[in-house]
Amino acid sequence: MMYSVDGKVFKENGKVTHANSMGYSTGFTGQGPHWAKQWRVPIRYAETLATYRCGGIVKSLTYKIAPIGYEVPAGGSVGDYGSDVSAKDGAANYNHAPANRRAIVQQKSYFQLSKGDSLTIGYGATAFGVGISLDTTYNDSHYERITAGSTAIEHDIWGANGPVTNNPGVIYSY
After folding, report:
1. How far apart are CA 67 and CA 47, in angstroms?
2. Does the pLDDT value for residue 100 go beyond 90?
3. E strand or H helix at 38, and its extent?
4. What would you report as the CA-atom Rg of the chain, rounded to the nearest whole angstrom?
């Protein structure tokens, strides 16, 4: 215990924060024009219990299946080709997309959309002059990248649900 010059007890506190990060990336490259397949990755799911409260009172409990992480099975594939979605690409779909959802990727360049979310929840308590705290952080992120070839033709892209820079959902191309 520490004391000040006048004999009163000091209050001490401190905090140590340590953060680690590790990421994974998988996908396909160099498939060329008129090729559009989904990319499936092995995601682990778990049943979780969601508690909804109003004014501190539990109003409902709901079970839901939620993704909890990327998990490659032993000896399994880190990703795999999925359904052919080329019917969603092309000039006809681009022309029907609202103008505010369209953009151009110039030749020999790329556009990448990255999105991440982080939530930190902290709790603390003091008892008998001893304080303790706990912080828990949840993170997730993903990205989508469109690479234009070397031809003299521009590469047109559009968001399925909104502009390419504002919650587009899937980004399609032509």
Report:
1. 9
2. yes
3. strand 37-40
4. 25
Q: How do residues 143-163 score in pLDDT, each as one tens digit? A: 778 888 777 777 888 888 899
Task: Name residue 39's amino acid.
Answer: W
Structure confidence by residue, pLDDT tens digits, 62-76: 888 888 888 888 999
Yes or no: say if 94 and 103 are a contact pair by the CB < 8 Å rule: no
Which of 73, 48, 71, 72 lies closest to 61, judged by CA?
48
Name which of 58, 62, 78 is nearest 70 in CA terms. Answer: 78
Are the CB atoms for 77 and 39 separated by under 8 Å?
no
Can you tell me the distance from the alpha carbon of 167 to that of 174, in angstroms, rounded to the nearest whole number?
19
The percent of residues in the chain predicted with pLDDT above 70, rounded, is: 87
pTM, rounded to two decimals: 0.52
Residues near 164 by beta carbon (within 8 Å), at least 6 away in sequence: 101, 103, 111, 113, 157, 158, 171
The DSSP letter of residue 12 is: -
